[in-house]
Specification:
The chain is mainly α. The protein has a domain of about 80 residues. The protein has a two-stranded antiparallel sheet. Helix 1 packs antiparallel against helix 3. The chain is elongated and about 70 Å long. About 0% of the residues are buried.
C-alpha cells in the first residue's frame, strides 16, 4: 500500500511597504457582490419602487371588494382611516416611517444575502479513507 500526501504550496510575496506584515483582507461596510447579482438587486428595487408608485391591485375586502385600486390610493386610504379612528399625527407618521424602513431594510437584507459566499473548503490529509 502506498500512502501519498501532498503538502499545499504557499507563495510568498513581498510587498513594497511592509513585507513583514500579514495580509489582512479588507473589511467593507457594504459587502461587494457579483455584478450579475447587483444588477438583479437593482432591477428588483426599481420594480418595487415602480409597483408602489404606479401599480394597481385588486382589493379583496371592504367597500371596494373586487375593484382595482392604485397602491398609493390604498395606502392613503389606510392612513386616512387611522386619522378617522383618532390616531395622533405622531402615530400615523410612525406607521409610515415603519413601512418605509421595512422596505429599505428588505433591500439591505437582500443585498447582504446576495453578497454571501461559500467559505473555502480546507481538506486535511486525514480525510482519506484507510483500508
Amino acid at each position: 500500500m502506498v500512502d501519498a500526501t501532498i503538502s499545499p504550496t504557499t507563495r510568498e510575496e513581498s510587498h513594497a511597504l511592509g513585507s513583514d506584515a500579514p495580509h489582512v483582507p479588507v473589511q467593507r461596510f457594504i459587502p461587494a457582490t457579483r455584478r450579475v447579482l447587483a444588477i438583479v438587486w437593482g432591477g428588483l428595487m426599481l420594480g418595487l419602487i415602480a409597483f408602489i408608485a404606479f401599480a394597481t391591485v385588486r382589493v379583496g375586502a371592504g367597500n371596494w371588494i373586487g375593484s382595482r385600486r392604485p397602491v398609493r390610493e390604498i395606502w392613503s386610504g389606510f392612513t386616512a382611516y387611522l386619522v378617522e379612528e383618532g390616531a395622533s399625527p405622531i402615530l400615523v407618521t410612525g406607521v409610515t416611517a415603519a413601512a418605509v424602513l421595512t422596505v429599505l431594510g428588505a433591500g439591505v437584507v437582500l443585498w447582504l444575502a446576495f453578497a454571501l459566499e461559500d467559505a473555502p473548503v480546507e481538506s486535511s490529509p486525514d480525510d482519506t479513507t484507510e483500508q
